[in-house]
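Is this the right way to post structure tokens for a design question? Let me know if I should format differently. Anyway, here goes:
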């Protein structure tokens, strides 16, 4: 399980969220207020995600993404989906050892997920939970 500080770092850290390593409660409050658009960019940069990929994962049409960029703020529900993505990225980096390995793993079909690409499952909570389970099995040494 990823810590609040690991997720915080994926979301852009102190530079963007203007707080020193917040707790999950503080992150929850930030999500309820709406995360800054720059957190979306920081998370996308971590995985070298294209605009279309981020749009699909967060279920935000490109025009909405453009509006959020201009306003510099995400809505609470969009922030919650971004937090879900950041949580998986942080967990993958923790389990697999670094950003590059996590990025590769998230982009490759996975037999334990029915040959689905983990990144493609992150647009729903059910898919995200499956990816979390597989990462948990890897963390505990179960071949996945």
């Amino acid at each position: 399980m990823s810590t609040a500080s690991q997720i915080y770092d994926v979301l852009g850290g102190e530079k963007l969220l203007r707080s020193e390593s917040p707790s999950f409660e503080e992150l929850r409050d930030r999500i309820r207020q709406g995360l800054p658009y720059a957190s979306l960019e920081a998370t996308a940069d971590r995985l070298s995600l294209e605009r279309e990929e981020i749009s699909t994962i967060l279920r935000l049409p490109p025009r909405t993404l453009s509006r959020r960029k201009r306003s510099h703020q995400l809505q609470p529900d969009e922030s919650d989906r971004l937090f879900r993505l950041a949580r998986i990225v942080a967990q993958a980096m923790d389990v697999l050892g670094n950003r590059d390995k996590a990025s590769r793993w998230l982009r490759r079909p996975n037999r334990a997920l029915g040959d689905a690409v983990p990144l493609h499952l992150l647009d729903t909570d059910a898919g995200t939970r499956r990816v979390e389970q597989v990462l948990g099995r890897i963390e505990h040494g179960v071949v996945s």
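Format looks fine. Someone answered above. Worth noting: The longest helix spans residues 76-96. The mean pLDDT is 91.
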